[in-house]
Design a protein that fits this description.
Elements (H helix, E strand, L loop, with lengths): L2 H19 L3 H12 L5 H6 L13 E10 L2 E10 L4 H14 L4 H5 L4 H12 L5 H13 L5
Antiparallel strand pairs: 1-2
Length: 148
């Protein structure tokens, strides 16, 4: 999938998920682009997982290497990631996680303010200490591509 194809499909899936969740579609698209390298990551290509969503319960999963950051720095580890039937299913599940998990309560409260939403959501989404900065940069860059 080309970057342009990814963007078209991501915008469609994000709009659909956002219409149900009320979360900002632009953040969903930017986050999917960041996490999946615009649909080029192995996890997105093989498992339709565009956000690095971990598998829980009986959900179908795949084990892959991932990078995590902690006080000792960046390290590689294996994790079980959720497998989805489609991009749409993945985007809906991402919004469900943010909508239901208590850790994202503050993010939900400021869903109308993209910057505040990103800053609150990023506190719990990723271990990368620069995640919110990277995501906000992408939000700014892709805002101009909406609907194109």
């Amino acid at each position: 999938m080309t970057k342009e194809e990814f963007m078209q499909k991501a915008w469609a899936a994000a709009r659909k998920a956002s219409s149900m969740s009320g979360l900002p579609a632009v953040v969903t698209v930017a986050q999917a682009a960041l996490e999946s390298n615009f649909g080029q990551s192995r996890l997105s290509r093989e498992s339709n997982n565009y956000f690095g969503l971990k598998a829980h319960g009986a959900r179908t999963s795949v084990a892959m290497r991932t990078k995590e950051c902690d006080c000792a720095g960046e390290h590689s580890t294996r994790a079980r990631f959720a497998v989805y039937d489609s991009m749409e299913d993945c985007f809906e599940d991402r919004d469900r996680v943010i909508g239901e998990c208590s850790a994202y309560a503050k993010a939900r409260e400021c869903a109308g303010d993209v910057q505040s939403f990103v800053l609150e959501m990023a506190k719990h989404w990723a271990t990368d200490p620069h995640y919110s900065e990277k995501l906000l940069t992408l939000v700014e860059q892709i805002s101009d591509t909406e609907g194109k």
